[in-house]
Design the sequence.
C-alpha cells in the first residue's frame, strides 16, 4: 500500500495513440459503466499492462468508483498491473512439456537472463512467464515467444530467437 | 395479501411469498446464524452460515437468498447443518489472525458470539497466519485486516446506504482483501465521506474508531437497518 494521490490527478497526454485508442473505445461504448471489462481489455492490449494513471482515466470517464475498477482488474488474471515486458517468453510447464524438459529450459533461461518466471528485465525488454499447458502437447516442450509457438524447443535455439527479437546479447 | 403455506421445523406457517426463508424465520423466532446478513442491505449469501435443508433438494441452500415457495418443507437445525456451521466458524477463525483477548471488539463481536453458538472449543484446521496490514491513515477510524472475515457488509453499506463506494474487494481466493479506492490508504481516499457506517456494519473488530481501548467498542448495526426502514417511509 503506498500513496498515489498524485498519480490519480495526473492528466494523460491526449496525443498518445494508446490514449486515443482507449478514448475511442469508451466513446463507442457510450461511456456505459457496464462496458468496463471491454474497455480494460482495450487498455491492456494497448499498453501490455494497466498503469494506475490509465485506470484513473477510465474511472473518471466512466464515472465509476475507483475501488470497483481496481477490484475488477485484480479479479481477472488477464489484467495485469505490472508490465510483462516488451517481448514475452512463455514456457509451457504442462505435464507433457514438463516430462520433456521444460524445467531445464527455464533453468537455462534463468541462468542466461537472471529472470525467474513472472519477472521482467530492468530495461523492460524481456519478461519470462510460465503457462499450464498451452494445448500443444504433441510439440512438447513448447515455448511461446511473442505469440509464436516454438515446438520441440531447445534452450539454445530459444535463447538465439530471444536475442534476435530483443537485441539482448 | 396473498399468503402461501410452508413448514419450518415441523411448524406450519402462512407467509408472504415475497419473503426469504431468513426473513420468515426471524419473524417467527426461529434461530438462524448469520454473518454477512444485515437487514436493510442486499443479501449475497457469502458466509454460508444460514444454510438450511429443504425437502426435495439435495444441496443445502442459503436462507438469506432463497425465497419461500408454496408447500416448502424447511429444516434449520439438523445434525448436517450443525456440522457445516461448525466447519464454517472454524474456517473463519483459521483464515486470519483473530486474537480475542487483545481485540477492541472483545465481548461485542459477532464472530466471537458465533464461536460460542456453535460450541467451538478448538480449531481443527491449520491457521493461515497471513500477513495483514493495519491501516491507521484515516484521522478517525482504523481498518485492521487481521480481523476481517470478508462478509463485505462494509462494502455494501458504503455502496447502497452511503452511496460513496469507497470499499471494494480485490484479488480472489484466500488473497482477497478489502480495499479503499485503488488500494490506497484509507486516509487518502477521494471517495470516503467519513460517515462511519462501515464501522457500525462491521461484525468484528476490523473497523473501529480511534481512541477506543480494548473491549470497549460499541457497535450498532441496527442503526443501518433503521435508517433503511425510515427511507422507505412515505412522508
Sequence:
Amino acid at each position: 500500500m503506498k500513496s498515489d494521490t498524485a498519480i490519480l490527478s495526473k492528466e494523460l497526454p491526449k496525443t498518445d495513440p494508446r490514449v486515443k485508442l482507449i478514448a475511442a473505445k469508451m466513446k463507442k461504448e457510450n461511456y456505459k459503466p457496464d462496458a468496463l471489462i471491454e474497455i480494460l481489455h482495450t487498455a491492456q492490449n494497448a499498453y501490455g499492462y494497466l498503469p494506475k494513471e490509465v485506470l484513473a482515466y477510465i474511472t473518471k470517464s466512466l464515472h465509476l468508483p475507483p475501488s470497483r475498477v481496481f477490484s475488477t482488474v485484480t479479479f481477472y488474471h488477464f489484467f495485469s498491473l505490472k508490465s510483462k515486458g516488451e517481448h514475452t517468453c512463455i514456457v509451457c510447464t504442462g505435464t507433457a512439456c514438463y516430462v520433456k524438459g521444460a524445467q531445464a529450459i527455464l533453468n537455462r533461461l534463468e541462468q542466461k537472463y537472471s529472470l525467474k518466471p513472472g519477472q521482467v528485465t530492468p530495461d523492460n525488454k524481456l519478461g519470462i512467464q510460465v503457462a499450464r499447458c498451452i494445448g500443444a502437447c504433441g510439440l512438447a516442450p513448447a515455448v511461446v515467444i511473442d505469440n509464436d509457438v516454438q515446438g520441440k524447443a531447445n534452450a539454445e535455439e530459444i535463447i538465439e530467437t530471444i536475442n534476435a527479437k530483443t537485441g539482448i546479447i | 395479501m396473498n399468503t402461501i403455506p410452508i413448514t419450518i421445523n415441523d411448524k406450519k406457517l402462512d407467509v408472504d411469498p415475497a419473503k426469504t426463508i431468513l426473513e420468515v424465520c426471524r419473524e417467527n423466532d426461529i434461530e438462524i446464524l448469520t454473518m454477512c446478513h444485515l437487514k436493510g442491505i442486499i443479501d449475497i449469501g457469502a458466509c454460508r452460515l444460514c444454510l438450511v435443508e429443504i425437502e426435495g433438494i439435495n444441496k443445502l441452500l442459503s436462507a438469506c437468498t432463497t425465497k419461500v415457495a408454496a408447500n416448502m418443507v424447511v429444516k434449520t437445525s439438523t445434525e448436517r447443518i450443525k456440522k457445516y456451521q461448525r466447519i464454517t466458524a472454524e474456517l473463519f477463525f483459521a483464515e486470519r489472525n483473530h486474537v480475542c483477548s487483545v481485540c477492541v471488539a472483545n465481548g461485542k463481536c459477532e464472530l466471537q458470539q458465533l464461536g460460542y453458538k456453535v460450541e467451538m472449543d478448538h480449531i481443527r484446521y491449520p491457521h493461515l497466519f497471513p500477513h495483514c496490514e493495519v491501516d491507521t491513515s484515516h484521522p478517525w477510524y482504523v481498518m485492521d485486516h487481521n480481523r476481517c472475515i470478508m462478509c463485505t457488509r462494509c462494502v455494501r453499506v458504503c455502496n447502497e446506504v452511503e452511496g460513496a463506494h469507497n470499499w471494494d474487494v480485490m484479488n480472489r481466493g484466500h488473497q482477497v482483501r478489502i480495499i479503499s479506492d485503488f488500494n490506497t490508504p484509507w486516509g487518502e481516499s477521494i471517495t470516503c465521506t467519513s460517515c462511519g457506517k462501515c464501522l457500525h456494519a462491521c461484525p468484528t473488530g476490523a473497523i473501529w474508531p480511534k481512541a477506543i481501548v480494548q473491549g470497549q467498542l460499541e457497535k450498532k448495526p441496527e442503526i443501518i437497518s433503521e435508517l433503511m426502514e425510515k427511507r422507505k417511509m412515505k412522508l
Observations:
- Residues 27 and 61 of chain A are 10 Å apart (CA to CA).
- Chain A is about 45% helix and 10% strand.
- The mean pLDDT of chain A is 87.
